[in-house]
Amino acid sequence: MTPDPNRLDNLLVENRKFAPPEKFRAQANFNDESIYETAAKDPEGYWAKQAENLTWFQPWNKVLEWDAPHAKWFVNGKLNVTYNCVDRHREGPRKNKVAILWEGEPGDTKVYTYDMLGREVDKAAHMLKSLGVKKGDRVTIYLPMIPELPIALLACAKIGAIHSVVFAGFSSKALHERISDADSELLITADAGWRRGGLIPLKANADEAVVDSPVKKVLVVERVGEKAGVEMTQGRDVYWHDLMKQAPSTPFPAEEMDSEDVLFLLYTSGTTGKPKGIVHTSAGYLLGANTSMRSVFDLKDEDVYWCTADIGWVTGHTYIVYGPLSAGATAVMYEGSPDYPTRDRFWEIVEKYGVTIFYTAPTSIRTFMKWGTQYPQSHNLDSLRLLGTVGEPINPEAWMWYHEHIGHGNCPIVDTWWQTETGSAMIAPLPGLTTTKPGSATRPVPGISVAVVDEEGKPVEPGNGGYLVVTKPWPSMLRTVWGDDERFKKTYWSQFKGYYTPGDGAHLDEDSYVWILGRIDDVINVSGHRIGTMEVESALVDHPSVAEAAVIGRSHEIKGQAITAFVTVKEGVETSSDLVDQLKKHVVEKIGAIARPEEILFAAELPKTRSAKIMRRLLRDIAEGRVLGDTTTLADPSVVESLKQQYKDSE
Ligand code: PRX
Q1: d(C-alpha 174, C-alpha 179), whole Å
Q2: How many angstroms does the Cα of residue 508 sit away from the middle of ligand 1?
Q3: Residues whose CB falls within 8 Å of the CB of residue 211, separated by 6 or more in sequence, listed in order
Q4: Cβ–Cβ < 8 Å for 55, 92
Q5: φ, ψ for residue 67 (rounded to 5)?
Q6: Which of 142, 191, 258, 574 falls between 20 and 30 A from 476, CA-CA?
Q7: Rounded to whole angstroms, what are the CA distances from 386 to 287, 372, 375, 419, 432?
Q8: Residue 329 in contact with residue 305, Cβ under 8 Å?
Q9: Distant-in-sequence, close-in-space partners of 195: CB < 8 Å, separation ≥ 6
Q10: 444 CA to middle of ligand 1, Å?
Q11: Cβ(542)–Cβ(567) below 8 Å
Q12: Ligand 1 site, residue 391, Cβ cutoff 6 A
């Protein structure tokens, strides 16, 4: 990580406060302030108490074994995550309760009760077993937001296989890289996915991705049908529905998993070009997901809960699949985009299903603001009682708009700060207890301890910017980076001894509320999605015309950040708008549409220090139109002046 302390000076000032509405407080699951203190005094005791909400095949004999930075939680406990998410509900009064209300983009719908879901998961587990999948094997899943996606996850977890979901927006090359790193022999995909009425060619991407990879079998879900024009490779490709028909309808026995057995890998971007396979284990991860459903989301049996994320990201893993299902919730799952066929699709869904808890990203809220209040106004949103946000800092204006136009002033807002690595929400209000301030994720949840520290690891004074750190281990923490424990230690645990470093800057205010300032490493957060600058740079220099590239995230009104690339071309190459388009396309092919640079600027030279390090901070200043920071270490100051002029001209 190359932290840039100059980014820590951008402190928000926001003074409005919102106490929990009395009606909400009275009914909240967590309504006793003393929980914070109790948990802080004895975090292990707190987590052990929460763990009673899970069903164990065998109890643990020690809550935590901490050999920093390696943690083992609930030592020698045995459980199965799918048993906790599905089967235990089937055996009790929730048997015929709706688990998933699925809404397809074209308007088709499916409803699964816990019992129906359980039967599908069992069949799918039989099917995976017939394909040779066993405990510990990695299964890569590249599916759109269709019911087979959670079913595939739960079937893997029932067998004890490790799933690795790759977001359906990633390119074939990105998929290939993730399949190879995880060494998966099975890939589950679909013929195609729907997106704004068009098709995402998932099977075609998968065909390219599996070349020269460890994959032996490709299991294909038919989502679109004939239109997808899929070609099946004999001996390698099989249809999901064909095998499901053959699968026995007998219950599939849940594999008894150790607390620390791996549940899944999820790749995320870091400061180098190569994505990291974040490793989550069974008991601790499930506990984080389950507890936060009750604490942060105040989940009740009668709620209709909707998290609008994609299961391809951690938010979807935790707050569409494992959190809601383990807590026995009724959850909405939507396949498509918010503006298809019209810009009120989300509000139509809220009204149709009577959604009570709604969780989305600040980028979406800013987009809704731009579209205007007529869309939410045209629907009855009175069922809503709690709103949440995640993925990026929320600006107070967007918070207020969400509060007024979606929550009608009645719904507490939980701004949840967390990461792929943390597994579940870390800093967030407890909606029946915490007075919120627009733009602040407020305080760490009970059982979590954070601090904001300076370069030396000393706590900074309130109001001063610093590095956010987590000072104690927690159950849903990542255990390592798949196949690279050194990278795990170096990335997260080397900067401040004994502390986990997430890579975010923050400051505390006088009430010890946390205000997240965003990433301070070489990671960009575009619409709540993490992209490494190095990944995009590697994709650019891979193009035959490019000599050198520097990529930065600049602030963007809707997306939070946008990708700006500064590129120098090879001798003799003509720069043109055509080349800009080619380069953007190249990045999309290498990574996926989420990494497409907003703008590409050609430069004769990139600003470098005398030791030849590209000064990204200056590039960011240029792209954000700021007065340039310190340029004294530049090898050639004239480079910056000409870049500045060029940037202005390009606007
Ligand atoms: O910078 C923080 C930002 O998103 C990063 C984590 O990204 P990812 O692993 O993709 O997970 C996103 C969803 C959990 C963090 O390092 N971030 C996430 N939530 C917030 C946030 N920044 C500010 N406020 C948040 N609520």
Answers
A1: 9
A2: 17
A3: 176
A4: no
A5: -115, 80
A6: 142
A7: 22, 21, 19, 21, 10
A8: yes
A9: 105, 336, 337
A10: 14
A11: no
A12: yes
Element (H, E) at 188: strand 186-190
Q: Please check the confidence at residue 411 and state whether its pLDDT lies above 90.
A: yes
Distance CA 257, CA 424 (A): 21
Ligand 1 centre to CA of 526 (Å) is 11
- Per-chain mean pLDDT for the chain: 94
Dump pLDDT digits (tens) for 599-620. 999 988 888 888 888 888 888 8
Distance (Å, whole) CA 102 – CA 420: 25
CA within 13 Å, CB half, 577: 1
Measured distance CA(173)–CA(160) in Å, rounded: 28
- Return the residue matching tokens 């893993």: 317
Count CB atoms within 10 A of the CB of residue 236: 13
pLDDT tens across 130-166, in order? 999 999 999 999 999 999 999 999 999 999 999 999 9
Report d(CA 257, CA 159) in Å as an integer.
9
Ligand 1 contact, 504 CB (< 6 A): yes
* Tokens representing residue 418 in the block: 């967390």
Longest Cα pair distance anywhere in the chain, in angstroms?
74
Two structure tokens written together for 407:
């929550």
What whole-number distance in Å separates Cα of residue 534 and Cα of residue 548? 12
Region of 591 (left: φ > 0; alpha: ψ -120 to 50; beta: rest) is alpha
State pLDDT tens for residues 53-62: 999 999 999 9
Identify which of 488, 459, 470, 492 has the alpha carbon closest to the alpha carbon of residue 418: 470
**Cβ of 530 below 6 Å from ligand 1:** yes
pTM of the model: 0.94
Q: How far apart are CA 635 and CA 462, in angstroms?
A: 37
